[in-house]
Amino acid sequence: DLILFWHRRDLRVSDSIGLAQACNTNARVIGVFCFDRAILTNDSVAPARVTYLVGCLQSLAKDYRRAGSQLLFVEGNPVVKIPLLATTLKAQAVYWHLDIEPYSQTRDESIATTLKSDGIEVHTNWDQLLHAPSEIITGNKQPYTVYTPFWRNWNSRSKPAPVEVKLPPCQLDATELTDLAQVPTIDLPTAKDLGFTWENPLKLEPGTSAAARELAEFCDRSICEYDEQRNYPALTGTSGLSAALKFGVIGIRTVWAATIEAMAQTSSDEARAGITTWQQELAWREFYQQAMYHFPSLAQGAYRDPLKHFPWQDDQNRFDAWCRGETGYPIVDAAMRQLNEIGWMHNRCRMIVASFLTKDLIINWQWGEKYFMQRLIDGDLSANNGGWQWSASSGMDPKPLRIFNPYTQAQKFDPEADYIRQWVPELKSVETNLILSGNIPPLTRHQIGYPLPIVDHSVQQRLFKDLYASVKGVA
Ligand code: FAD
């Protein structure tokens, strides 16, 4: 008997609920990954993400080989390719992990129907979350739309421990190998073969061992100081695990267990507060995933009805300046250049640039959401959409009208302008107080080749507030 385990955003052979179940059946188990053309040709795909994905697949294939088993690769439409592979290999069952994204759910339902009609079993589990989307619900059995009560409920529940997986050796026999030619399977392509180039300036090593190392280093280095350090983009105060979590290179239960261990190793209140704050970030991840699961229309537009028809001004030139990091606002430009250069941006800066795009440039947040997806190594529908809707005042937020002052933000969170100077080198020799206050004289800007501010923050803030107040039903 043969079981296919279909990997999607769970690129590992450890701490995997479905893979552990498949391996406990005594059947032979092999893995498969499908390069979905619809995803790879979508205009929201980022070269950094594809490159990281391919690296993780290389590492996953190695883990299969090490166990004496194998990972197959197919390319095309999974709705066709997964059932074709399963029937060709006469698989008894296909296992996979459930996902919250609307596209994945429609795709998976269609595949499950085909497989079942071919007499092949389908086994699915939730794996990428500590609590499945319908597990954390309000007293009225409704999904949460506010984070704080979600966190309280989520945090009060016991969390599953990492799952042990014993991947058995499994080779296809000669007949199966001959049949396989009908599918056909492919060799693992490079990112370049898929049409993407990215040099990995982030130096982020793909794969499970690298992610486990990052987690261990973060727990040694910063988790205890996370509460104080997480807002300073010039520091390495966060985990850098977002891409690994996005692709499931590390199991979420393993990550949680590391926080519990860190907690057990300290008696300091500050350290415990740091660890709790980091756990809260993991809960934000789950909050936005359950939100996308219960309210799939979030992917299409504003959660709050009044904001569905907001009079955005959508000026293309301003948008282009924002994308290039040439708005004349140093903290915004530093952040956008960081994104453009390394495919990652610090969370504080994601909030600053998102507020700037929506509240200062008065551009539809969906433009920014898409631009982020085209660049981010960790680009993820639910986290990105949640972050953008929060910043645009259109999302799940009990106090939706928030406007960041880019100068105050820079003064608070980059007080020496170290981060700004790192990413906007033309400001290297400009005095810190001029950079932070926005008072760089026009002549200096001209001499160093740094633009004048493209808008006036106080004018735009008033304009945004007026527009916001004029939207029917907003109060
Ligand atoms: P850490 O601070 O170490 O946090 C640990 C983990 O918690 C992260 O890896 C991530 O998985 C999760 N997390 C942290 N903050 C959030 C959050 N606010 N929402 C959801 N999950 C969170 N995160 C993404 O993973 N993909 C995105 O596409 C994405 N887009 C964003 C867009 C905007 C406008 C904003 C404001 C935030 C976005 N975030 C996104 C959330 C956050 O910025 C990143 O998860 C974080 O910066 C990643 O760095 P880290 O791994 O060092 O995070």
Automatic annotation (TrEMBL):
InterPro entries: Crypto/Photolyase_FAD-like_sf (IPR036134), Crypto/Photolyase_N_sf (IPR036155), Cryptochr/Photolyase_FAD-bd (IPR005101), Cryptochrome/DNA_photolyase_1 (IPR002081), DNA_photolyase_1_CS_C (IPR018394), DNA_photolyase_N (IPR006050), Rossmann-like_a/b/a_fold (IPR014729)
The UniProt record lists the keyword Flavoprotein: yes
Keyword annotations from UniProtKB, A to Z: Chromophore, FAD, Flavoprotein, Lyase
One GO-annotated biological process of the protein: nucleobase-containing compound metabolic process
Record site feature (Electron transfer via tryptophanyl radical), residues: 312, 365, 388
GO terms, molecular function: deoxyribodipyrimidine photo-lyase activity; DNA binding; FAD binding
Gene3D superfamilies: 1.25.40.80, DNA Cyclobutane Dipyrimidine Photolyase, subunit A, domain 3, HUPs
Superkingdom of the source species: Bacteria
Cofactor(s) the protein requires to work: FAD
Residue ranges occupied by any Photolyase/cryptochrome alpha/beta domain in the UniProt entry: 1-130
Cofactor note: Binds 1 FAD per subunit.
Binding site for FAD: 226, 238-242, 278, 281-288, 378-380
Designated name of the protein: Deoxyribodipyrimidine photolyase
Family: Belongs to the DNA photolyase family.
The UniProt record lists the keyword Lipid metabolism: no
Signal peptide (from-to): none
